[in-house]
Specification:
The structure holds two protein chains of two kinds. Chain A is of the alpha+beta class. Chain A is 28% helix and 22% strand. The chains are: A alpha+beta, B alpha+beta. Chain B: Residues 147-177 are annotated as: Disordered.
């Protein structure tokens, strides 16, 4: 075993994962072929709200290759209800959530029947031969209308109001009463923002394979959460958890969209149990858009109180959050994750957050990159600009005078969180310098004075977020159904190789590379000698999986602790082997030595000695493996300053990003290459919310953006090159100093872009433009007309979905 | 219908349903699972392969349309264990995260570089318009394609390491599966 020459942490290691991904040797779930495998196809409701009065499967059953056609009736006794793990209040209304609709459908896209056939083609053919009779019910789409309870999504609940969740700084003892602040304020600004509905749109469509042979159920799924999935599938079906093995093989992106226990996973399992044969289901893209959960979809009424000098004093947040038709795994909790973030980096005296969750006849919402925090960041960063406009102040100046100064950390906020570290001044200074802020302001002034057709805008977003989900005690206090710890194991193999087992479940993040770097540093083992195992509950029996920018801050810390356990035991054995006092043993670069002597034992020799166990100290167990589980004390708080310059063509409404600078402080960086990549991808998704993406429904509740021709995931030509940099204040809540980076770009960028576009056209009388800021919307706003209307039209696309929900 | 298709240097003779998509033929019949399906409308480009040296979306083509043609997939790029320069550049520039779009993106990039040997940023972005990536924000993909252009310049490496999918030697038919 050779020592590692230079520290691995901080090194731009190229990824181990790439070898299989660039050659096509990847193992996606849909690649699996098992002997005798059946294929499942799902018939989906074309209507948003209806009673099912009859299902005739006789023609479909007789089609070539069809083994069986199954309906909700067939599963009514065994399918139970899909789990919601986050009952945010004691009185939260939670409707039963059948995987396959039995007598009523509540959103267009809900599963109604299954064809099980010998090929995917035969299964798809037979779908068209199933006849379903629907008796239409009134469709509930608009949240404010829904709250009038004239028509009900779930009549048995008696209301469309799911729950109301409140945080009040006065009641919590974290600040003053916001109503007092508003009453006493010199300036009060009230705005309403709409967070449009988005679709996660991971590139790999969801896929599930279940094999029921050998007395076990093995479930392969394109999921972010194999461990949670195993637990929940067992809870729903009653199948012993020990008889369920869940494998997440290579998973092609998630962004929260695969943080779910899906109807199709449960149905594949039930079908495999019923048929005694392996079953595969792989969705089409349109199915993914119609049935996989959506994200965002809030109406935000924000009231900000301030003094005339620009000092903010109070913030009141009143939200409506669209749940869609059912509560999926963490649906009701997503807006609550934003509750602690609206106050952001600013020092408000009083704060109140009130969120009402509402049922509608739409696809359920749930986690999408940032989950609650992008919504919060958008609202506060828009409000800070509105305040600056109101007071005629420079928007960066107003932020600076209100944010937490670097010497004030740790700082307990008005929302009750303690931010451990940060330096907003440093990140901002670096961003302003890279951006050329003053020069761009001059250019902007020139174009305004000239009355240029193409105006220039500058947008700011000084954000923070809470990451590293999550301290288990906090999750408990928020009534979440699980803990937030993470686990890791290290197996020291007799040949000197190392296996690392993690409870995190990467789906593009590069854990195999980064976890190897951490262990290589800690144990002095070559990077190449480390193999990272994940995503299989048989090898990684315990874990809380990957989401919420938690993997490194929580899972990486568990790994550090496991490595330290290995070293502690190895040190004891090394002392025994070198016949010295343990206190005299030093460890460096993978070798133990006796202080002041030339006696040395390489870690590999010590591991081998532990493995053969011929001569161990009294009471020492053979082997050199270690497990550790880490439960964080606090969240981590990445922050940064993003600056966006846009050109707005006032004749066409076209927006072009001409410069984008992101300076992020994500704490200690293990691999800068991967961190940059996370930021780039996050920016793309946040910018897409600002400019391109929106899930829209027609008045019947049909999703009109159910293909990539209609839902505008940006392509390379739609995005600019980004200029990224970092400042570093290590997190104090974990030994790595890591804060998390998965969501930062998405959280920060949306308001930077929107503020920029508004800054370009505000002098022309435009006060607001809804997202996505399509050319049509920008142009309409420039004509001084009201917005064409939320949700009436898609931002762009082909309009290729007809009223029946099929592709025309 | 009977078809004969050369895929990654091997000629296959097969009976296929006329409606079978080329991508399903590649994946299900030939086990070329490196080529993937990301959408049903031809927008995402994850299924991109080369047909006679030019990129096509294999979910928008029938297997029978490939009859008598040469198909190159991501699995046919490496030669004698040596990666194609575009594959190398994607790795070196961290141009992939989840990797699902990567095979199609690499195939499209090779096609792009065949037309534009030294593309600027905008040319690369426009050339990749038909391929969606949800992870990278495209920044490192653009960088990788430009890096690959340098690696592929005449004289940039030993002759035998310069690849051109237009000169795939056809081998004897080995029949279908």
């Amino acid at each position: 075993m050779t020592a590692t020459a230079e520290p691995e942490v901080g090194k731009a290691r190229l990824r181990k994962e790439d070898a299989r991904l660039i050659t096509g040797e990847t193992r996606w779930t849909d690649n699996l072929q098992l002997t005798g495998m059946l294929h499942m196809a799902v018939l989906r409701s074309p209507v948003a709200h209806a009673r099912i009065t009859g299902v005739d499967v006789s023609r479909a059953t007789a089609m070539p290759g069809v083994a069986v056609v199954l309906t909700g009736e067939d599963f009514a006794a065994e399918q139970g209800s899909l789990p919601c793990a986050w009952p945010i209040t004691e009185d939260m209304k939670s409707p039963p959530a059948p995987a396959l609709a039995v007598d009523q459908v509540n959103f267009a896209g809900e599963a109604v029947a299954l064809v099980i056939a010998d090929s995917a083609y035969h299964a798809a053919d037979a779908l068209e031969a199933i006849d379903v009779d629907y008796e239409d019910l009134p469709v509930v789409l608009d949240m404010e209308e829904a709250l009038r309870d004239n028509d009900l999504v779930h009549p048995d609940l008696g209301t469309n109001r799911c729950a109301t969740w409140i945080f009040d700084s006065a009641e919590a003892g974290a600040g003053t009463n916001v109503e007092d602040e508003i009453a006493a304020a010199e300036v009060v600004i009230e705005r309403t923002f709409r967070q449009q509905r988005l679709i996660p749109a991971f590139m790999e469509p969801r896929s599930v394979v279940v094999d029921s042979s050998a007395g076990m159920f093995t479930v392969w799924s394109a999921t972010q959460i194999p461990h949670i999935l195993r637990w929940m599938l067992s809870a729903v079906t009653g199948i012993s958890e020990s008889k369920l093995r869940v494998i997440a093989p290579d998973v092609g992106g998630g962004f929260g969209g695969k943080l779910q226990v899906t109807p199709e996973e449960l149905l594949c399992l039930l079908v495999a149990r019923r048929m005694g044969r392996p079953v595969k289901w792989t969705e089409t893209r349109t199915e993914s858009m119609l049935a996989a959960h959506h994200g965002r979809d809030q109406v935000q009424k924000i009231t900000l109180a301030a003094r005339r000098d620009g000092t903010v004093t109070g913030l009141k947040v009143e939200l409506l959050a669209d749940m869609g038709a059912y509560l999926r795994l963490v649906t009701p909790g997503v807006p609550i994750l934003g509750a602690f973030m609206f106050n952001s980096i600013y020092k408000f005296a009083g704060y109140r957050f009130e969120c009402t969750n509402v049922f509608t006849n739409k696809v359920p919402t749930d986690a999408y990159r940032g989950a609650g925090r992008p919504e919060a960041t958008f609202a506060i960063e828009r409000m800070m600009d509105e305040l600056a406009v109101e007071l005629g102040m420079e928007p960066m100046k107003i932020r600076e005078m209100n944010w937490i100064k670097h010497e004030e950390f740790p700082f307990t906020t008005v929302a009750g969180l303690t931010y451990d570290s940060g330096n907003y001044e440093a990140a901002t200074a670096r961003a302003m310098e890279l951006f050329g802020y003053d020069d761009l302001r001059e250019e902007q002034a020139r174009r305004r004075a000239d009355g240029s057709v193409v105006q220039l805008g500058i947008g700011i977003s000084t954000y923070t977020e809470m990451c590293g989900l999550a301290p288990s005690r906090v999750l408990g206090a928020l009534r979440y159904g699980a803990g937030g710890w993470e686990t890791a194991s290290i197996r020291m193999l007799p040949t000197g190789k190392v296996e690392v087992i993690t409870g995190t479940s990467p789906h593009g993040q590069g854990h195999e590379t980064v976890w190897s770097q951490i262990v290589a540093d800690r144990l002095g083992v070559p990077f190449e000698d480390i193999e990272v195992l994940h995503g299989d509950t048989a090898t990684s029996h315990k874990g809380m999986d990957s989401y919420g920018s938690r993997s490194l801050a929580v899972g990486g810390t568990a790994l550090v602790q496991a490595a330290d356990k290995v070293l502690a035991k190895a040190r004891t054995l090394a002392a025994h082997m070198m016949e010295c006092d343990e206190a005299d043993v030093e460890f460096a670069s993978g070798s133990f030595s006796v202080r002041g002597t030339s006696t040395v034992r390489a870690l590999g020799d010590v591991v081998l000695a532990a493995h053969v166990a011929h001569d161990l100290p009294e009471g020492m167990e053979p082997g050199m493996d270690a497990d550790a589980t880490f439960d964080p004390d606090n969240f981590s708080y990445p922050h940064g300053t993003h600056l966006c310059a846009t050109e707005v063509d006032t004749e066409t409404g076209m927006v072009k990003i001409v410069r984008y600078v992101a300076v992020d402080d994500v704490g200690t960086v293990v691999n800068p290459l991967i961190v940059d990549g996370q930021v780039h991808g996050g920016l793309a998704q946040g910018i897409a919310q600002a400019l391109y993406e929106e899930a829209t429904h027609d008045e019947m509740g049909t999703l009109t953006t159910a293909t990539f021709a209609d839902y505008l995931v940006p392509c390379a030509a739609d995005l600019p090159a980004f200029l990224t940099d970092r400042t570093t204040t290590p997190a104090t809540s974990n030994p790595l100093g890591a804060k998390g980076v998965g969501e930062a770009g998405t959280i920060a960028s949306t308001p930077a872009v929107v503020n920029s576009v508004l800054d370009a056209v505000r002098h022309l009388g435009v006060r607001d433009i809804e997202m996505p800021m399509s050319p049509e919307r920008v142009w309409t706003a420039l004509q001084g007309r009201p917005d064409p209307g939320a949700g009436d039209v898609a931002a762009g696309g082909l309009g290729s979905i007809d009223a029946q929900g099929g592709q025309s | 219908m009977h078809i004969s298709v050369n895929v990654d240097g091997v000629t296959y003779a097969d009976e296929v349903e006329p409606r079978l998509l080329l991508v399903h033929y590649l994946r299900e019949r030939l086990s070329k699972t490196g080529t993937v399906v990301g959408c049903d409308t031809g927008n995402c480009g994850a299924c991109t392969v080369h047909l006679d040296g030019h990129s096509v979306k294999s979910c928008q083509m029938l297997a029978v349309q490939a009859n008598g043609h040469e198909v190159t997939t991501i699995e046919g790029l490496a030669r004698d264990g040596k990666l194609h320069p575009v594959q190398e550049a994607f790795h070196s520039n961290h141009a992939l995260q989840c990797g699902f779009c990567t095979p199609g993106m690499i195939m499209q990039a090779i096609d792009l570089l065949a037309d534009e040997s030294d593309p600027d940023d905008e040319t690369v972005r426009k050339g990749l318009e038909g391929n969606l990536c949800r992870c990278t924000g495209y920044q490192n993909i653009v960088r990788a394609v430009q890096d690959a252009a340098q690696r592929m310049k005449p004289g940039a490496g030993p002759k035998q390491e310069q690849h051109s999918d237009e000169h795939v030697p056809s081998q004897q038919p080995v029949g279908g599966e």
